Every structure is written in structure tokens, then in C-alpha cells.
Amino acid sequence: MILHIASFRWKDEVTEADVASATEALQRMAAGIPVLDSYVVGPNLHLRPGGADYGVAAIVADAAALDAYLDDPAHKAVYESHLGWMIAERTAVQLPISEGSLR
């Protein structure tokens, strides 16, 4: 299994309404992509100093499933309609996980 984590720092002009709209679009998108085993998305809680403004965490079965998710037309559509103009900086990482490592 693979854990894909993406984090974003928004441009200054992004509003809370923009973030709420993007979150709704991402949640709708995820519901329609069957290769996603788990999907969590939302604004950073900022419980610690620093960090990104927003994050996405997705769990998929393997590299082929990750490609299917990232290349899905619905994923690309959300990027074009919501995220693309909002992002000042993006980082991502993919981590191997096993059933036993999920606690």
C-alpha cells in the first residue's frame, strides 16, 4: 500500500470560501475514484507553528493505483477548476505502508 501526502501553501488572495469550495470538490471527486482506499483532505489545523495551509492524504494499493488516481480526469478537472490558481507552493511524498503500520 502507498500513502500519498500532498501539502499546499495558498496564494495570498485565496479566501476561506475558495478553500471550502475546493474541499467540497475534492471530496466529491474522491467518492468517484474507486482506487482510493482512504482519502482525507482539508485545511491545516495549525496546532503547531509553521506548516502548509492545506493537505491531502490518500491511501492506494500500489503505484498503478496512484497513477490511476492522479491521472483520473476528475482529479485533473478539480485541479483546473479549483486548485491550480490557488497554489503558491506544493509538496508531495509517497510512503510505503503495510496493514500493520496503520494504527
Plain-language structure description:
It is a single chain. By secondary structure, the chain is of the alpha+beta class. The protein has one domain (2-98): Alpha-Beta Plaits, CATH 3.30.70.100. It has helices spanning 16-31, 63-71, 73-86, and strands at residues 2-10, 38-43, 54-60, 87-96. Helix 1 (16-31) packs antiparallel against helix 3. It is globular, with a radius of gyration of 14 Å. The two termini are 14 Å apart. The model has no long low-confidence stretch (mean pLDDT 95).
CATH architecture descriptor text: 2-Layer Sandwich
Roughly how many Å is the radius of gyration? Answer: 14 Å
Read across the widest sheet, the strand sequence of neighbours is 2-3-1-4
What percentage of amino acids are in beta strands? 25-35%
Q: Briefly, what CATH class?
A: Alpha Beta
What is the averaged pLDDT score? 95
Straight-line distance between termini = 14 Å
Principal-axis shape: globular
What's the total count of β strands? 4
Determine the structural class based on helices, strands and strand pairing.
alpha+beta
Provide a count of the helices: 3
